[in-house]
Amino acid sequence: MFNPNSWTFLTNHSHVLLCLVQNPSMRMRDIAIKVGITERAVQHIIAELSAECYITRSKKGRCNTYQINADQHLRHPIEAKQTIRELIDLIITRNTGVIDSA
């Protein structure tokens, strides 16, 4: 089992984003469990991703659905030439061979 106190190469922001790529209507509670953070932290991350246009949130009944804006560029100067799509391709597509939301 993953130890949430250990460090990882990717941030919680990228983990939340990748959860939404795999399931655009995933509940915040389920994201929190999968990433190993609190629901409150997930809410904060989703708000930041939405404010910076990395995701677009829409209501579907009582649930939120998220669309990934895959052509947005990564934020840090070291990787700013790469897009979210390239990150998704690196992490998701190479692992599963499938990508549905980007």
Describe this structure as you would to a colleague.
With 102 residues, this protein is α+β, with helices and mostly antiparallel strands. It has one domain: Arc Repressor Mutant, subunit A, CATH 1.10.10.10. The protein has helices at 12-22, 28-35, 39-51, 84-96; strands at residues 55-60, 63-68. Strand 1 (55-60) and strand 2 form a beta hairpin.
Label this structure with key terms.
102 residues, alpha+beta, Arc Repressor Mutant, subunit A, two-stranded antiparallel ribbon, 4 helices, 44% helix, 12% strand, globular
Unreliable runs, pLDDT <50, ≥5 residues? none
Largest sheet: 2 strands, antiparallel
Order of helical and strand elements: HHHEEH
CATH-scheme architecture: Orthogonal Bundle
Mean pLDDT: 89
Q: Look at the structure and name the CATH superfamily.
A: Winged helix-like DNA-binding domain superfamily/Winged helix DNA-binding domain
* Structure classification: alpha+beta
Q: What percentage of residues falls in helices of 4 or more residues?
A: 40-55%
Outline type: globular
End-to-end gap: 29 Å
Number of helices: 4
- Range of strand content: 5-15%
Overall tally of domains = 1
Record the SSE blueprint:
Elements: H1 12-22, H2 28-35, H3 39-51, E1 55-60, E2 63-68, H4 84-96
Helix pairs in contact: 1-2, 1-3, 2-3
